[in-house]
Amino acid sequence: MKDNSLYLNALLNDDSQVIKEIYENNFPNVLRFVFQNKGLQADAEDIFQKVLIQITVRYRREPFEIKTSFNAYIFTACKNLWRRQLNKSKYEVTNDKIVELRSEARELALSVLEQERWEFFQEKLELISENCKEILKRFFKKIPYKAIAEELDYNDERVVRQRVFKCKTKLTNMIQQDLRFKELKEL
To answer: What is the pLDDT of residues 59-82, one digit of tens each?
Structure first.
C-alpha cells in the first residue's frame, strides 16, 4: 500500500503510471456501485473522472491529508457524488430542444464542498466516545434499534433510543461549536 501523498502528488503532476494504478485499483468498485444504483458504465466513468478532478483541484488549492486509505476516500467521494446526482435527476426534466444550463464549475465546487462537509463530519465522529461511535454508525446504517440492542448488549431498544439521542446531541454540539461549521454551512 502506497502513501496517500504519493497518489495526491501523482494526480497533481499527471503521473500516468500511478494514475493508471489508481484506475485499476478503484474503478471496478465504483463501477459496481453505480451499476447497483441505476447507473451505466458511462455514468461510472464520468463520476470517477469528476472525483479525480475534484481531488486534484482541491489539493492544488489547499493541500490536505487523507486520514483513511486513498481507495476508501475515492470510493466514498464517488458514492456521495453519484447519490447526489441521482437525487438531483429526480427533479430534472429532460427536453432535447432545450440547452442545459448547468455549470460544470458549479458542479465541481458543490462536489468539493460536499466532500469537505463529509470529512468534517467524520472528524467530529472520531472525537466522541467509542460507545457513541458504535451506536451512531449502526444508527446511520439504518440498523433497527432492536438489532443494535442485541449487537451491543443493551437491555432493550428503549435504552438504545436514549443513547442514540444523547450521542447525536453530543455530536451535533461538537459540530456546531467548531468555527468551520459556520463556514461550511453558509457555502
So the answer is: 888 888 888 888 888 998 899 889
